[in-house]
Amino acid sequence: MNPHANMIIMSSLILGPMITITSNHWIMAWVGLEINMLAIIPLIAKQHHPRAIEASIKYFLTQAAASSLLLFSIINNVWNTGQFDITQSTNTMSSTMMTAALTMKLGLAPFHYWLPETLQGTTTMMTLILTTWQKLAPLTLLMMINQSLNTSLLVTLSLLSMMIGGWGGLNQTQLRKIMAFSSIAHLGWMTMILTLSTKLTLLTFYTYITLTTTMLLTIKLLETNKMSTAMTSWTKSPMLNAMMMLNLMSLAGLPPLTGFMPKWLILQELTKNHMTIIATTSAILSLLSLFFYIRIAYYSTITLPPNMTNYSQQWRHKNQQKPYLPLMIITSSMLTPIMPTFMMIM
Amino acid sequence: MTPLHLSYFMAFIISMTGFMLHRTSLISTLLCLEAMMLSLFIATSLCPIQLQTTSFMLNPMLILTFSACEASLGLSLLVASSRTHNPNNLQNLNLLQC
């Protein structure tokens, strides 16, 4: 791509969510979302490949529908209450429609069909941007309107997305689709706690960003796109491959690792609010995700030599040094003891 | 619900239904998207009548500008897809399905 065009696209990709986050006026928030959507489409469609074009068309259609639905609910709210303030959107019908539109932008459960397909059609770095940076603006808007959201609706949506994130990932062999379903399940955890405590939503979001970034950078470095190449990827960087298992277990939320921290706090908060059945259900549903994380770890790490293997090995290329990866792996696996500090800061 | 409110509401709902249910060609989907954005433009322009305030023309212009950008992006995607897929059948976009 032309470097000038690339610079403009990247800067507006950064600028769009910034406008949305800092704005107090609904129209400016919508403009930020639109700028972001207009900037990401050329990046998705950069490879002139049928799959990239299809992914960008699917992304464009869902995001355009979601943003026009958001604008419709904004204007309904204005016609009924007469003001554009984000935190004051009190009309019930428009807040329900806003929930639908923002969850469509996020890729939550009933509106999730675009997410795995879009992620499958793009490169790993675009997957990284789509699963982390693109979630920032809609999630911030959801957190800003959380006074007027419907708790039972959000809890239903999040239980559904945990379920679909777990069940959908079971049948996949492509790592990026598995990461998409894991993203759906994590977003379910975030919206579960949204109306009860926004601080925990933020903490879950930060943890999710750290874990997903580490996982996708590992996938990028090992150049594994599917299970069958994950099996032979240990020849490229054996230590990184071993660490990938820790990272996957952290994504699943096993106790001494970082991913356990938000799940623990969310379950505690749900129990405090007498939602014991919902807490139990969500804890059980996270086992579905654990299954496919363990399957990736089994293929990539647990069946390593000295076992006899009968598959052909990959070429040992020159080892690329990524100085940021050790830091990110440490952050994504050993951050649980820092939890009291988080609780004091937030 | 005033007649003005009802008219833009119905315009939006009908075009949204068309957007969701009409699955043959990409260009008609883009036209439905434009109809949605135009009904929202009209709603924002008529907002001062409902609220009995002074007219403030920035919001409709912003909406119109961004809907034009969105339409141009949609048309460029139509051109890009016409090189790789049959643009007259959205069911052909099935390379990435699970």
UniProtKB/TrEMBL annotation, chain A:
EC number: 7.1.1.2
Residue span(s) of domain NADH:quinone oxidoreductase/Mrp antiporter transmembrane: 23-289
Catalytic activity: a ubiquinone + NADH + 5 H(+)(in) = a ubiquinol + NAD(+) + 4 H(+)(out)
Topology in the lipid bilayer: Multi-pass membrane protein
Family of this protein: Belongs to the complex I subunit 2 family.
Subcellular location: Mitochondrion inner membrane
Keyword field contains Aminoacyl-tRNA synthetase: no
Function: Core subunit of the mitochondrial membrane respiratory chain NADH dehydrogenase (Complex I) which catalyzes electron transfer from NADH through the respiratory chain, using ubiquinone as an electron acceptor. Essential for the catalytic activity and assembly of complex I.
GO terms for biological process, alphabetical: mitochondrial electron transport, NADH to ubiquinone; mitochondrial respiratory chain complex I assembly; reactive oxygen species metabolic process
Record bears the keyword tRNA-binding: no
Residue ranges occupied by any NADH dehydrogenase subunit 2 C-terminal domain in the UniProt entry: 290-343
Pfam families per UniProt: NADH_dehy_S2_C (PF06444), Proton_antipo_M (PF00361)
Originating species: Pelodiscus sinensis (Chinese softshell turtle)
Protein origin, superkingdom: Eukaryota
Protein name: NADH-ubiquinone oxidoreductase chain 2
Membrane-spanning segments: 57-75, 95-115, 151-171, 178-197, 203-222, 243-265, 277-298, 324-345
Automatic annotation (TrEMBL), chain B:
GO annotation (BP), single: ATP synthesis coupled electron transport
Places the protein is found: Mitochondrion inner membrane; Mitochondrion membrane
Spans traversing the lipid bilayer: 29-51, 57-80
Pfam families with a match to the protein in the record: Oxidored_q2
Enzyme Commission number(s) from the entry: 7.1.1.2
Family (UniProt): Belongs to the complex I subunit 4L family.
Function, in words: Core subunit of the mitochondrial membrane respiratory chain NADH dehydrogenase (Complex I) which catalyzes electron transfer from NADH through the respiratory chain, using ubiquinone as an electron acceptor. Part of the enzyme membrane arm which is embedded in the lipid bilayer and involved in proton translocation.
Protein name: NADH-ubiquinone oxidoreductase chain 4L
Provenance organism: Pelodiscus sinensis
Lineage: Eukaryota, Metazoa, Chordata, Craniata, Vertebrata
Protein encoded by which gene: ND4L
